[in-house]
Amino acid sequence: MGRLVRDVPIIGILPGVPRRSKEVVHDRVGDYLFTEKPYFFVGVVWLELLFLSPFSIVSIFGILCSKPWFNTTCLIYGISIATPITIVLGELMGSGKASEKLMMMYSPSMDLCVLAFLCGLIMCSSKTSLALSKRSTYFA
After folding, report:
1. Full-prediction pTM beyond 0.90?
2. Phi/psi of residue 99, each to 5°?
């Protein structure tokens, strides 16, 4: 049972290229999270596979079709990425096992989540201020 819980079963389903890329990441960067598979990391991987991957596809659809709800999805996506990345970066900094390459591999994810959050926040606040200014002209 312990092995079933700790292994990510989808890795066995994947073709050879993703498996080899996983090995390359471990060999070149020294990502110990892939080999040790702590429980929180397995949970983060499942979160990204089940929730964030489909959410990314929906967000790309929102960009391409200029949907009005795209700004809201930016906010949700930024927060949804920030939570697990903060946990992973905290583990990497706290454990002392992380190399500089490994930290550089995970750091752009935090930049992406901050960018997505700010993009959604700025766009939503500009729409809100525009709506408030329109409303004030109606009452004048």
Report:
1. no
2. -85, 170
